[in-house]
């Protein structure tokens, strides 16, 4: 499940929240409903411009299984800092609800900062098409209560990228990434 905060669906997102859940015991309609709540900011008369895509698969080829993918893109144009913070808080709440309903979801032991950094670099490289070896760590913070690591990296071209990595099903997972544009030399 991915939630993107973006200026337009055709451009790479400013921020992405990512969560992978195995054995989610929630009907697809309930997940869609939870994600749709993110498009309504408190007090607004209309939902934020957004796009929600879901895709389901059922496999019965020797072994049986199913999967679902959800991608919600929310327009960031015109959002002030308070609205962006409200979306961040709402996404965390929705993910927490869904994670609690995942069968067998076990946060296990905390991930090492080194492993978390590798996961963050890999996800940033994939999302933003930058070589991971060109990312220099600027900051690393650990939240023991949430069992997450937050990183800030600078790319050789001056852009800054961030990531939050935690554990889902005992597996290191990049839960949120973002980028900032390099300041212009003007």
Helix content: 10-25%
Mean pLDDT: 78
- Uncertain runs are none
| Total beta strands | 8
Cross-sheet strand order for the largest sheet: 3-4-1-2-8-7-6-5
Give the ordered list of helices and strands: EEHEEHHEEEE
Shape: globular
What is the rounded Rg? Answer: 17 Å
How would you sum up the major sheet?
8 strands, mixed
User: Helix/strand-derived class?
Assistant: alpha+beta
Task: Describe the model.
By secondary structure, the chain is of the alpha+beta class. The chain contains 3 helices and 8 strands, in the order E-E-H-E-E-H-H-E-E-E-E. It has helices spanning 28-37, 81-100, 113-128; strands at 2-6, 15-18, 50-61, 63-75, 135-143, 148-155, 160-168, 171-180. Strands 3-4-1-2-8-7-6-5 form an 8-stranded mixed sheet. A hairpin with a 1-residue loop joins strand 3 and strand 4. The longest helix has 20 residues, at 81-100. The chain is globular. The model has no long low-confidence stretch (mean pLDDT 78).
Main attributes of the structure:
186 residues, alpha+beta, eight-stranded mixed beta sheet, 3 helices
Can you give me a brief rundown of this structure?
The protein is 25% helix and 38% strand. The chain has 186 residues and is of the alpha+beta class. The chain is globular and about 40 Å long.
Helix-strand layout with pairing:
Blueprint: E1 2-6, E2 15-18, H1 28-37, E3 50-61, E4 63-75, H2 81-100, H3 113-128, E5 135-143, E6 148-155, E7 160-168, E8 171-180
Parallel strand pairs: 1-4
Antiparallel strand pairs: 1-2, 2-8, 3-4, 5-6, 6-7, 7-8
